[in-house]
């Protein structure tokens, strides 16, 4: 295997401006993300495995392996349920790579054995199709998710191959046979089709990187090229739903189903990088830029429609019933990471940071045992506690639910948190780049055998000081060659960020600051980011939040949650006074608000909510609340049913 | 048959504040609605029949009648397609009653014959269930629509019985057998169930009125009482979707699927009136008031969600992708009409007027051969012309489509337009009430044999003068008893309305003005309504249109359509200057606008549409357009693809 093939990281492109580090090269030693990784490992993985067993989704493989004649009736779960097992395996593989946990290793092997037993002699592997009483294989490319499921199988195998190269569990061989079956079935002389849900594309490229077999890369390129010509049937949501209305390289914005759109963009970026396809990479870049400029929530969330889990048109970003699916956020991180590696542009890392803090970390509850599938920015009614003992039938549960009928987000969050260190830092020929800030260490062994090592001390995202210290072994001299240390200054830090090196402090602008030196042991670089809470205003074309502001602090978006304002029926009765900046009071972000009991105003009695003349609708303030506390958006709904809003109407 | 049973009108309650007139008592002789009734009769009925044949939905009855062994495979259309045939029959029946058209009579009889042939010996009639290879009868109450379909069969029979009492086509007998089968199957000792889609309730009450058989009324009351206790399964959209989460008499607002909600409210009102159930009627009244005060678009449209065609929570009224289903508007007219008859409150007639002009008349194209299923208030992209030769897979077509996979609106519009005169006027012991204004005549033969007759001369809704003249036969003396003529002053006429009687003019307020006199032949009452176009402001709690105004004139809502502003890429680039009132210029409503090319502003280049500090988002006006013409909302999208908005952001 090549050098990259044996590295422990989720994405290993053949070329690009920046190179990923292995997961083992970065250690998170505390803070916001260490806590989440720990909860994921200790609670979420077992929680997920419990529900997969309980719902019978793992047992589907046993039924298939046992040749159950009744499988068409006995099989449980939706057509894509196999993929959840694969995503759990991927999460476990990264976790095993991270910590070497023997318990997880043993559970991993046990599940792999049951999966492997269900594989058909020709490599086909899916519990939903092809057996007596079931629909034939590949008979429903629009909705069947067969290739999508193979994609997640390959991703699990990639994670395993990179964290335990040569392990004897057999997962990589199962994946290879499944991938071969796909290439034989859908190759240039095979079925001229593609999957309604993208995902296999990036998986095949990654599997080609692991196996160094370009056949899989060619198949991925073929799938990317096939999409966009109407090979899939028209459906109620239109072919845009699965990005089949326009060729990938002609599209100018992410559109349709937001998870599919991002998975496809990730796959297209992978293909473009491997095949030096500059026009394809440029198309993905343009799609990303336009999606971020016009179709992304302030949280980083994407997808505004419930009906088809899709992007809306430009500027359609309603906060109430924002869909902002957790998995779309994860897909967005996947795309931005690939583009960051390709281009090095810090705006990609900006979006990754925003999305990790405000979408990915919003989904799981503090205990890691319930999840948001969608991440609305405005909750108008209290809602009800989901039944802890039943999967939610609804994606948009009013509070986090333990499991869903369509339960893609828990496993997706788990695999992302288990591999989170991948997104922290990169290297290039000049040195090291830090993209995300958390307490810990980063080590990079260069091709010349030399280690570049730093530690990061910070209370970020609650404290703006990020202290990076250079480490060296006793054996290393202090007079080595110079190398470059690059730090990202986030896009939100438009005023007041400073960098201190060797006692010299200077202002820095959003972007990347690079210090190239012959570093001495113990040298420190200190980035100070401005942490005053701030009002954020929306673009004038975003109709749904006209006349509103959001509150942010550092990379965190804040929300007004009714549990924090006792005596107020709903947060919709508050209006924020923007003449006074948001303030930290006892460590809590607060704003000044007016309380307007709009319902009690006289005009309400008319029974028709529209007036001739503006005076009829002018609300009258009942009282002024000087220090209304806000909650970090990702932490909302952890204290029971509440109303909530991110975008606050102003008194102006 | 009783007096009311033989009257030609869609709703004939046993009691109430006002009494309906027969369709023949009102003649529309010209203007807005005469044109629409004519297009409906000449074009839409034939168009609908053509598509019902072409799609095989009528042929389904032939397959069922012929005992086709393959019916499970051969049957076409969705589970509710039978109801479209019944709605066409209902529309035809009203039209035959209105004009006596022999061609329509002959087509009507031919369809009835095919429907009747498919009825099972025990009265069961549905082409989708119960035959070999099909699902068993009543096996899918949540989604199967069997009772819903029977409801529309009964409505067709009611229309026939009231317009051609004693006709020998057999439809009433078919309906009676089907209704009996329902009572036997779902009576007190039968299946303890109900239909996922309400509709049978109001139909059974009307059928009881026609047949004077209270068994059907009792069954309707039973269905109303059964709903709201979770007898239907939980589904993805929740039991609220079919109003089964809360008993009808405990609910305080219309909720869930907007058509189901309105049909149920109509049925509950009917049951309440017949059974003198004051608390049930009061519940419907409260639900209506709260739905109108908080869940209704300025057009009168109801239902804001695409996913489940449902009402949103209070104040959730997004204009873009407003669902505002045509059929929900029709359901809303049904409810308001029943409450108007029960209470006499002119606010019900206000909503009927608003909904007829801005929802029901928006659906059909000028030629009556294509339809909006949903009625958005904001269209951001040009969209594409639907294929004129294919049913639309999508409810939300960008332009009117000739037919839909779910094609409930064309037939619903047709039956409503054919019976439109029902909503114009009523009588009570004191005299006549005019609720809607259109040129024509109204005649009412009182129980004492005396005729009250008036003619209406008006250019309404384009002219505010409504001239009501008293007519008498030569045989009638001028010195008869006094009687009362009541006219509705619409809720929007808050300033400047006047009434002139016998040369005396006085100001009048919204509500009802009544003149009680001994009328002389040729007496005139002239109502003058203020017809200056006006800005309309939304309630402060409707987040989605904060900072916007709508423009109305009389009962008509206006829209800005891009076809009227050549050179502007999208209407979203215009902002209206509210310091200058909208003006009539050459008969066209115009507003002054600023044109803002927001995309060209510098901040757009940053690639992230949120800013710290308000200045970043302040758009810069490129030019001022003094007389931007607006289009009557109901007439938008008749000139090809356009962007469009009803709610216009202001320059303020």
What's this entry about, in short?
2 copies of one chain form a homodimer. Chain A has 14 helices and 24 strands. By secondary structure, chain A is of the alpha+beta class.
Account of the 3D structure:
- 2 copies of one chain form a homodimer.
- By secondary structure, chain A is α+β, with helices and mostly antiparallel strands.
- Chain A folds into 3 domains: 420 residues, Glycosyltransferase; 92 residues, Golgi alpha-mannosidase II (Immunoglobulin-like, Sandwich), CATH 2.60.40.1180; 116 residues, no CATH class.
- In chain A, 32% of the residues lie in helices and 17% in strands.
- Chain A contains 14 helices and 24 strands.
- A 7-stranded antiparallel beta sheet of chain A has the order 2-6-7-8-13-10-11. In chain A, strands 3, 14, 15, 16, 22, 23 and 24 form a 7-stranded antiparallel beta sheet that branches. In chain A, strands 1-4-5-9-12 form a 5-stranded mixed beta sheet, covered by helices on one side.
- In chain A, a hairpin with a 2-residue loop joins strand 4 and strand 5.
- The longest helix of chain A has 24 residues.
- The interface between A and B is large, with 72 and 72 residues.
- Strand 20 of chain A pairs antiparallel with strand 14 of chain B.
């Amino acid at each position: 295997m090549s050098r990259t093939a044996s590295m422990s990281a989720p994405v290993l492109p053949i070329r690009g401006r920046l190179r990923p580090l292995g997961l083992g090269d970065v250690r998170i030693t505390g803070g916001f993300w260490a806590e989440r990784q720990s909860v994921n490992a200790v609670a979420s993985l077992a929680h997920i495995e419990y529900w997969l067993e309980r719902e019978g989704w793992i047992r589907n493989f046993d039924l298939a392996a046992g040749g159950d004649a009744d499988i068409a009736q006995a099989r449980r779960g939706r057509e894509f349920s196999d993929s959840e097992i694969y995503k759990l395996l991927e999460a476990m593989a990264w976790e095993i790579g991270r910590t070497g946990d023997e318990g997880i290793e043993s559970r991993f092997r046990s599940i792999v054995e049951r999966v492997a037993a269900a594989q058909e002699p020709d490599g086909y592997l899916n519990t939903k199709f092809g057996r007596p009483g079931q629909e034939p294989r590949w008979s429903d490319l629009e909705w069947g998710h067969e290739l999508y499921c193979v994609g997640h199988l390959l991703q699990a195998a990639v994670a395993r191959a990179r964290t335990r190269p040569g392990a004897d569990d057999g997962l990589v061989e199962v994946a290879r046979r499944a991938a071969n079956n796909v290439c034989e079935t859908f190759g240039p002389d095979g079925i001229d089709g593609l999957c309604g849900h993208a995902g296999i594309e990036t998986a095949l490229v990654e599997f080609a990187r692991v196996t160094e077999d370009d056949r899989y890369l060619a198949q991925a390129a073929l799938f990317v090229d096939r999409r966009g010509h109407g090979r899939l049937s028209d459906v109620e949501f239109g072919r845009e739903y699965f990005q089949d209305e326009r060729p990938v390289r002609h599209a100018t914005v992410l559109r349709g189903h937001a998870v599919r759109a991002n998975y496809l963009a990730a796959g297209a970026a992978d293909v473009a990088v491997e095949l030096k396809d500059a026009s394809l990479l440029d198309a993905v870049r343009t799609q990303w830029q336009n999606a971020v400029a016009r179709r992304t929530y302030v949280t980083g969330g994407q997808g505004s429609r419930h009906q088809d889990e899709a992007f809306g048109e430009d500027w359609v970003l309603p906060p109430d019933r924002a869909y902002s699916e957790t998995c779309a956020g994860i897909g967005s991180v996947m795309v931005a990471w690939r583009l960051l590696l390709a281009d090095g542009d810090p705006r990609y890392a900006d979006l990754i940071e925003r999305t990790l803090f405000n979408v990915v970390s919003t989904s799981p509850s503090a205990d890691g045992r319930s999840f948001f599938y969608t991440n609305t920015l405005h909750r108008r009614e209290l809602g009800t506690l989901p039944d802890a003992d039943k999967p939610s039938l609804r994606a948009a549960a009013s509070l986090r639910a333990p499991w869903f009928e369509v339960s893609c987000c828990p496993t997706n969050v788990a695999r992302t948190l288990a591999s989170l260190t991948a997104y922290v830092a990169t290297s290039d020929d000049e040195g090291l780049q830090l993209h995300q800030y958390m307490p810990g260490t980063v080590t990079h062994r260069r091709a010349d055998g030399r280690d570049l090592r730093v530690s990061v001390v910070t209370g970020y995202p609650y404290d703006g000081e990020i202290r990076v210290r250079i480490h060296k072994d006793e054996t290393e001299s202090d007079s080595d060659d110079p190398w470059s240390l690059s730090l990202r200054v986030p896009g939100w830090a438009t005023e007041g960020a400073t960098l201190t090196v060797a006692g010299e402090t200077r202002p820095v602008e959003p972007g990347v600051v690079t210090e190239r030196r012959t570093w001495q042991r113990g040298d420190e670089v200190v980035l100070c980011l401005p942490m005053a809470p701030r009002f954020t205003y929306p673009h004038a074309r975003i109709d749904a939040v006209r006349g509103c502001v959001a509150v942010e602090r550092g990379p965190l978006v804040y929300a007004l949650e009714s549990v924090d304002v006792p005596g107020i029926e709903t947060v919709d009765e508050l209006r924020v006074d923007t003449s006074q900046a948001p303030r930290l009071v006892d460590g809590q972000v607060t704003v000044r608000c007016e309380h307007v009991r709009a319902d009690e105003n006289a005009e309400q009695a008319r029974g028709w909510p529209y007036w001739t003349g503006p005076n009829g609708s002018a609300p009258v303030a009942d009282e002024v609340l000087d220090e209304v506390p806000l909650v970090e958006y990702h932490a909302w709904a952890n204290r029971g049913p509440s109303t909530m809003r991110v975008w606050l109407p102003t008194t102006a």
